[in-house]
């Protein structure tokens, strides 16, 4: 079991009092991976936060999107290899969540169970940090001292917060990846979207931060999911994300790179799998609509039968 290093919320920089002056950049030290938690790593359905099933997922479910921990581990390993000396090979993975400190143990449990690498966890004090976008931007400005990959989703304010940070510190951002869940038109210029962690791995292969073996491991974590468990790849509530699946296409610009043919083949296999997954989600949504229409008709008939 991987050992996990936790920093308490109290011991971390308080975003309310932290200086807006950013720390100095550590040269030749690899890169960091910064990620949101809900609906980026873990299935939560944040847009429907008042529904009972959403409350259950937030409080009790440990359901992580298939392939997420494999991708993060691969990126962390690549980052550490890029560092010039051992003193720079510290924790590379930070999770910034809008969740309150009361959920820390549940988040820790979910990340540990899914075998994510060592990480820093940043939680939000809801009594003082009421603006989620400003909170995330301030955390990034106060803590980042290496170039970073930023992961988020389209359910809340990740695209805006990451865009704010990138405008202030453009030299710090290697890439921004936004998980397609709602399909809302919130993606900022230069940001990339993903439906599965493989989409990120594919782009990172092109950026030469992942090799073909690492990409293959991420692909396997998705392709090996049984049909009965397709919900581990993408849940039914990600219907809007499926509607945007055409945003992701295969087609490496340089097929002479070592492993390019394998990666391109895997891309097509994952694309086929996601077409199957999304068709299932769309069919399920259509069936639910039929049930809703039938229920409405029954209610109308019952009302009319009682009318004088």
Count of discrete alpha- or pi-helical segments spanning 4 or more residues = 9
Q: Write down how many β-strands occur, each being a DSSP E stretch of 2 or more residues.
A: 6
Taken as a percent bin, the fraction of beta residues is: 5-15%
Helix fraction by DSSP (H/I, runs of at least 4)? 40-55%
Care to describe what's here?
The protein contains nine helices and six strands; from the N terminus they run βααβαβαβαββαααα. Strand 4 (148-153), helix 5 and strand 5 (173-179) form a beta-alpha-beta unit. Strands 3-2-1-4-5-6 form a six-stranded parallel β-sheet, sandwiched between helices. The N and C termini lie far apart (70 Å). It has one domain (32-306). It is α/β, with parallel strands linked by helices and 308 residues long.
């Amino acid at each position: 079991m991987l050992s996990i290093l936790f920093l308490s919320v109290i011991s971390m920089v308080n975003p309310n009092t932290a200086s807006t002056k950013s720390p100095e950049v550590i040269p030749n030290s690899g890169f960091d991976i910064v990620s949101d938690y809900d609906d980026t790593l873990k299935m939560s359905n944040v847009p429907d936060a008042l529904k009972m099933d959403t409350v259950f997922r937030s409080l009790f479910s440990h359901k992580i999107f298939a392939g997420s921990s494999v991708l993060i581990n691969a990126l962390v390993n690549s980052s550490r290899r890029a560092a010039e000396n051992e003193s720079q090979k510290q924790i590379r993975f930070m999770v910034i969540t809008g969740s309150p400190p009361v959920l820390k143990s549940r988040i820790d449990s979910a990340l540990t169970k899914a075998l994510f690498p060592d990480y820093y966890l940043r939680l939000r004090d809801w009594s003082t940090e009421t603006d989620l976008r400003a909170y995330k931007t301030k955390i990034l400005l106060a803590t980042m001292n290496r170039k970073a990959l930023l992961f988020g989703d389209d359910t809340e304010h990740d695209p805006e917060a990451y865009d704010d940070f990138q405008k202030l510190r453009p030299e710090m951002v290697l890439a921004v990846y936004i998980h397609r869940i709602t399909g809302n038109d919130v993606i900022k210029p230069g940001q990339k979207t993903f439906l599965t962690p493989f989409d990120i791995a594919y782009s990172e292969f092109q950026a030469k931060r992942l090799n073909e073996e690492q990409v293959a491991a991420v692909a396997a974590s998705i392709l090996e999911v049984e049909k009965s468990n397709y919900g581990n790849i993408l849940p039914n509530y990600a219907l809007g994300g499926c509607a945007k699946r055409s945003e992701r296409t295969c087609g490496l610009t340089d097929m002479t790179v070592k492993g390019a043919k394998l990666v391109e083949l895997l891309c097509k296999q994952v694309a086929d799998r996601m077409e199957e997954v999304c068709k299932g989600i769309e069919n399920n949504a259509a069936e639910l609509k039929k049930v809703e229409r039938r229920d409405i008709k029954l209610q109308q008939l019952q009302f009319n039968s009682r009318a004088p």
